[in-house]
Amino acid sequence: MDIPVNIKIDHLARVEGHGNIKIRIENGKLAECAWEVVETPRFFEVMLKGLSIEMTPLLTARICGICSISHALASARAIERALKIEIPKPAQKARLLAKHAETLQSHALHLFFLVAPDFLNTDSVIPIMETHPQVAETTIRIKGFANRASDLFAGRTTHPIVIKVGGLTQIPRKRQLRELVKDLDATIPYLQKAIDFFKPFKMPDFARETEFVSLKGVDKYPFIGGDLVSSDGVCKKEDDYRAMTNEYIVDFSTSKFSSLSRESFAVGALARFNNNYDLLHPMAKEVAENLNLKPGIHNPFLCNHAQLVECMHVIYEFREIIAELIDSDTSECASSYNVKKCEGVGVVEAPRGILYHYYRIDEAGKIEKADCVIPTGQNHANIHYDLHALVEELIEQNKDEKEITRLAQMLVRAYDPCISCSVH
Amino acid sequence: MKYLGITLAKPKIGVFGFTGCEGCQLQIANNEENLKDLFGLIEVVNFREISSEKRGDYEIAFIEGSITTEKEAKNLKNIREQAGILVAIGACACLGGVNNMKSRFPLQDVVKEVYGAHSIDTGPVRKVREIVSVDVELPGCPISKPEFEWLVRHLVLGIEPQFPKYPVCVECKQRLNSCVFDMGMICLGPVTRAGCDAVCPRNRLGCWGCRGSSEEANFESLMEILREKGFSEEHIAERIQFFNAFSGN
Ligand code: SF4
Ligand code: SF4
Ligand code: SF4
After folding, report:
1. Which of B182, B174, B8, B208 lies closest to A58, judged by CA?
2. Which of A14, A64, A339, B232 has the greatest number of C-beta atoms within 10 Å?
């Protein structure tokens, strides 16, 4: 392939936020390849300065429309750890259910709206809703359940209302919980249909050895808090998050990049799957087996499959926890607290990977300094280097410009990047 | 589409995101139950978040986010030139929204805090109507799904949308919700435009004004009540300034 190739995709479609792909091939060699983040920053770390801790989770939720529940949870957790607030058990459980609802919603949105059109050769999900009524029904069922569960446990899907420092403003009534169980049971068969729908799509055959970073589960597949682990053997405490993220600035991106043991690392569903496979629900392991997925995967396209596995995990765990809530006293939903000068870190696994919030709080209970490290921000460097490796392989295989463009876009999409969030 | 026996043209629409969290665009996409019907009324020709189709012949443009760079201002002007109807969606686009909180600090300090010596293109936070003329403003952070649908139906039928003029309190009381004031919280429901079905007070959080001011809002009397209840000026100000909803322009 000696014809020069010049690919420039401005504002890649079907991803959240604004990013460009740039690929230049000259004399059959890769001359330039970049994943450029061009989102305009909003400066949340500055906005937070001087804000009362009471309003902090409400503001940080607005970092991201898709993972607002995760941001509110990481934010509240950072403050609660700083002030040593123990939140009531039922509130802990209800928070995890809000989290699971978000994971299901976010994964379903990514798989059906952003990924599926690539395999069905359409621009968007809109024509699919016409041509594949069963897929439309499956999407509506799964996303609908996730929305109803978010409404119940967070107040709404985007920008939660009930998550507050110390716990929650309320926990749903038993009658509402029982109704949601019925809804959940009716949704599970549709998850199976989703897996049957995605299984025949052949994911591109590509791998690049990668370091994967996630929370380290102890007795449960991890979502909220705990130690940090990498597949290269690094293990750190939650408070030590900076040793894990090592952010740096590059001149072609408004988002910072991150590195750990290598030039880049990856976070997200695949990282969680690789690092915590043993802790998955048996039903989720069954999905993994069905998709022929074993831990130790280095093909980024298989993040799509790892998300399917996680959908099954969260729905079954949801069912178990909601049963516990139905059987317990849920009257206590928040703990009271006193403010003091302190600092703290809160970590959660957002749908797209590990998310850190850090605050220093003054004696009046206002934020003095804030630092938020976003999953997609940690993934950008890995996307960038994956893109290099992928295009080099494609050149070797004599693939044409059209195919390179198609696969490069699909690669970025597989990471499910949340770009406005990463720039924040 | 047919309406009362008359065939209506499907207007072509574009959805564009500027400086924001894309949560408003997501409210459109996450309305899966009615998405098929809604997309049956309109033709989506440009909606980058969910579609790779990128056409320039849209008739109605929905604008999310505030404007914080010159490049964004230029893009917005181009969109205005093309679109017959331009709708600003969400608090960021209509009011500046939470983005405005950075305006409490000098711009160079803002950049330095996050990026150090690295230079970044950013400017003051502007509402969409500070750059171009806006035909309709759909409030909320995020916008409400049913209200978006309601608006689209109005635009398709060519009926001018009438937003509620009364405050959130009216909807809250209609729902027989217990007033959060009585639980010791601040609520801006008495001065905020209704239309969200009082979703925050229903979830035991005082309203903090994401939909902007209601008509004939009586700030004085609300302030009096808040002071009487013992809330500090600082506490009240933080709520009122949150979305830049009551700055009066
Ligand atoms: S108005 Fe709120 S939901 Fe909409 S883009 Fe702005 S921050 Fe996001
Ligand atoms: S809770 Fe707020 S909106 Fe509802 S009645 Fe009381 S003041 Fe009005
Ligand atoms: S209750 Fe107030 S803050 Fe909440 S959505 Fe309605 S207008 Fe916005």
Report:
1. B208
2. A64
Residues 6+ apart with CB under 8 A from B64: B15, B16, B17, B18, B20, B22, B24, B25, B89, B90, B92, B93
Is residue A345 domain-shared with residue A199, that is, in the same domain? yes
- Which ligand sits closest to the CA of B169? 2
Q: Nearest C-alpha of chain A: how many angstroms from B111? A: 8
Look at the alpha carbons of A115, A118, A124, A128 in this order and tell me if their dihedral is positive or negative. Answer: negative
Do both A93 and A31 map to the same domain? no
Alpha-carbon span B239 to A52, nearest angstrom: 10
* Residue A371 and residue A253 share a domain: yes
What is the bridge-based pairing of β-strands B43-47 and B12-17? Answer: parallel
Residue-wise pLDDT tens digits, A360-390: 999 999 999 999 999 999 999 999 999 999 9
Tell me, yes or no, whether A136 and A223 share the same domain: yes
Which domains are present in chain B? 2-157 (3.40.50.700), 168-241 (no CATH)
The total of structural domains in chain A comes to 2
> Which atom number of ligand 1 is nearest to the Cα of residue B91?
1
B173: CA distance to ligand 2 center in Å?
A: 7
Tens-level pLDDT at each residue, chain B (249 residues): 445 555 567 999 999 999 999 999 999 999 888 888 888 899 999 998 898 889 999 999 999 999 999 999 999 999 999 999 999 999 999 999 999 998 888 888 888 888 777 777 888 999 999 999 999 999 999 999 999 999 999 999 889 999 999 999 999 999 999 999 989 999 999 999 999 999 999 999 999 999 999 998 888 899 999 999 999 999 999 999 999 998 864
**Cα A350–B206–B165 angle (5° rounding)?**
110
- The verdict on the CB of residue B188 being under 6 Å from ligand 2 is no
**Cβ separation A155–B52 shorter than 8 A:** no
Q: Which of A20, A126, A374 is the best residue to mutate to test the B interface, defined by the most B CB atoms within 10 Å of its own CB? A: A126
Give the minimum alpha-carbon distance from A135 to chain B in angstroms, rounded to a whole number: 12
Residues of the domain holding A31:
5-37
Q: How many CA atoms lie within 13 A of A71 on its CB side?
A: 30
Ligand 2 atom 1: residue of nearest CA: B179
Q: What is the pTM of this model?
A: 0.96
- A311 and A326 fall within a common domain: yes
Looking up residue A95, the CATH number of its domain turns out to be: 1.10.645.10
A163 & A202 share domain: yes
Tokens in use for A231?
């597949």
Interchain CB distance below 8 Å, A169 and B115? no
**A13 min Cα distance to partner chain B (Å):** 5
